[in-house]
Write a structure and sequence with these properties.
Helices cover about 70% and strands about 0% of the residues. Helix 12 runs antiparallel to helix 13 and helix 17 runs parallel beside helix 19. It is an all-alpha fold and about 325 residues long. It has five domains: about 80 residues, Tetratricopeptide repeat domain (Serine Threonine Protein Phosphatase 5, Tetratricopeptide repeat, Alpha Horseshoe), CATH 1.25.40; about 70 residues, no CATH class; about 55 residues, no CATH class; about 70 residues; about 40 residues. It contains 20 helices and no strands. Belongs to the PPR family. P subfamily.
Length: about 325
Amino acid sequence: ALQVYGSIQDQSTRVTVSICNSLLGCLVKNGRSDSTFKLYDEMIRGGLSPDLFTYSTLLSGCMKLKHGYAKAMELINELNSRGLQMDSVIYGTLLAICASHNYCEEAEAYFKKLKDEGHSPNLFHYSSLLNAYSVNSYYEKAELLMKDLRSSGLTPNKVILITLLKVYSKGGLFEKAKELLTELEASGFAQDEMAYCILIDALAKGGKIWEATMVFNEMKGKGVKSDGYAFSIMISALHRGGYREEAKKLAKEFEDQNATYDLVMLNTSLRAYCNTYDTESVMRMLKKMDELNISPDDITFNTLIRYFCKAKVYHLAYKTIVDMHTKGHQLNE
């Protein structure tokens, strides 16, 4: 897309708003936010007159920027200075930006302004504000928002209910979370592992490891397919709790049932095997990493180095350190 745009010679065509919007949207969708804003600045200097769709696209690019909220405010000020009025799409994106950068009060203010200007919030607006509440476990505000949602005639969807589950779980309201999980199951919204993982993770981090294990076993008993996320949470929780043999057993269970791994699951299993000095399984994981063409990260290298040193296999520890430095990683203190 950039090559095609670069080949356009006519300046008036280069700053046609539909062409610019398409290219900026392509860059945002591919995660190239920095390039998006640099190109936008060039387009402005070239004579582009942005429209609401331009700003909506650029705001979407703020979502994952480190200082995304500040950049979003610059764009909103620019939008206002050009005499444009924010629509419900712009408000929805702003709410999502506030949620992703933990600006809860600002999200509430934009939600109120949205309604004050005569717009009807949709499920995306509600889910974004609910997500903002989930960051700090504002469950009372979340429940009031749910009442407002239902009174507006909307029906909560899977995203809304799972976000509410996150609010309850992070807030330690485990009984409410379990009731909501039952509701998700009855609605057919718990056919993948995500809802279970939210509750399992919260229970484990709250020191309720055996309750987490019960939910995990219930999930498996209901035939819910795990891509490794639930296993990773449980193996890590068992390891933190000192249940290393149980962690190893669970890592082996996943290995027996799955041919594919991602880096997170591989590191989790590797740590479980290293902490029980299961050299055969450690080597099997390294072989699997090569077969699946997974590149090790800092966690992988440091896990292996600690293991080789404790096992007094110093030549392998040294070889791993050399390999680590060659690939641009640093040894932990």
